[in-house]
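Long-time lurker, finally posting.

We've been working with Exodeoxyribonuclease III (Nocardia arthritidis) and I want a structural starting point before designing mutants. I don't trust myself to interpret raw outputs, so I'm hoping someone here can both generate the structure tokens and explain anything notable. Sequence follows.
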Amino acid sequence: MYGRQVPQIISTVNVNGVRAATGKTGKGMLEWLAVTEADVICIQETRATDEQTRTALAPALDAGWHLARAEPGLKGRAGVGILSRREPRAIRIGFGSAEFDGAARYVEAEFDDVTVASVYVHTGEADTPMQDEKYRFLHELGAHLKAQTRDFVICGDWNVAHTELDIKNWKGNLKNAGFLPGERAWVDDILAAGYVDVVRTLHPGVAGPYSWWSYRGRAYDNDAGWRIDYQLARGDIAGRAKQAVVERAATYALRWSDHAPVTVQYR
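Top reply, 14 upvotes:
Generated this for you. Predicted structure of Exodeoxyribonuclease III:
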């Protein structure tokens, strides 16, 4: 595993605060990092400074993980990173946006034969300036994705459920952010541009597998979730995806985030 030049197992997870996720002794993120077989892990919503993140992840970094990250410009907001067993040959924060490059919502790491990116798209709110901002972000991000020419995998919390299969209560969310026609059309456009939703390709025609569940009510126990954490791939690597799993905790009590890691194995 440690000698690979090309990542073969990639995970993505919104940690919902890296200090909280690593602070759950015996059942937290650090325990998961100690046993995961992933070569690269994309994380979102660290909600911490660079120093705080490195302190929270210190046991994993001491064990050999490398960390590339974008530090939040606003305290307690956003923050993305990429953990990798092999040090990337290049790291880029942002995608050339005057409006969004300081928002800590995008970072990419270049390895020998593939670039892996971690993205956090904020929730938005229908018919508000927050939703307008979300559409501007998606528009600029889309242009960046379409400009890629090498093997590329972008992972993250998109806060968009693409189809009715990707959200349990789709009828009740037709007018809500995360399932709006414009958001879903954006995903259509990216897929038409050559990207592959590898999890959906490997799990065709089934509900989910969901990756986020509200902490409220019994959403987790009833698997009333949303599939909003994606790995979109282009190039040769897209056709090498052979297995995808959502690493859903066995019980509500064992969760260390309201999202579960989405892990894809590539040939």
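Before you design anything, note these points.
DSSP finds seven helices and twelve strands in the chain.
Residues 129-146 form the longest helix (18 residues).
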